[in-house]
Amino acid sequence: MRVLGIDPGTAACGYGVVQSADGAMRSLDFGWWSTSPDLTLDQRLAAIHDRVTELICDYRPEAVAIEESYVGVDARTALSVGQARGAILVACAKSGVSSAQYPPATVKQAVCGFGRADKQQVQRMVAATLGLGEDPSPHHAADALAVAICHALGSPLLAAAGAAT
């Protein structure tokens, strides 16, 4: 299974592509991009949509896994991340690729075994799971790989249980 993971944001988005086969998992690519604060919101969202569409075309994932927004004290940030998620979901729908969304605690539980793991723990466990020589950086990329791992691990379990993915 090939999964594109996305850590969404209007200022910065992380991405990670994971391939899972025969009980082994490896990273095909990861990184991040930013949108200029000089752009209008609609231009930033269009840029996010276009970049996700490019990644889908380049890697042909079976699914796109998106980390859900962490709703902290700043409602404006949560709204902004939600808008970025919307642009990503539209890119998935227009490309015909299924998408799934996971709360941060679920991703951390799947990757680290602890739903309140910190950023460094996530980076270390992603590196260990994928056999990377060093921790993926920045944390946006590590988070995107983590959500892709979460989906890749969860899909076979859901299929075995007879649930739809």
How many beta-strand runs?
Answer: 5
| Count of separate DSSP helical elements | 5
Please give the radius of gyration in angstroms.
15 Å
Name the poorly predicted regions.
158-165
Give the terminus-to-terminus CA distance.
Answer: 13 Å
Mean pLDDT comes to 91
Instruction: Note the main sheet.
Output: 5 strands, mixed
For the largest sheet, list the strands in their spatial order: 3-2-1-4-5
**Pattern of helices and strands:** EEEHEHEHHH
Helix percent reads: 40-55%
Can you give me a brief rundown of this structure?
The protein is an alpha/beta fold. It is 51% helix and 22% strand.
Question: What secondary-structure arrangement, pairings included, does this model have?
Answer:
Elements: E1 2-7, E2 12-21, E3 24-34, H1 41-59, E4 63-67, H2 75-95, E5 98-102, H3 104-112, H4 119-130, H5 139-161
Parallel strand pairs: 1-4, 4-5
Antiparallel strand pairs: 1-2, 2-3
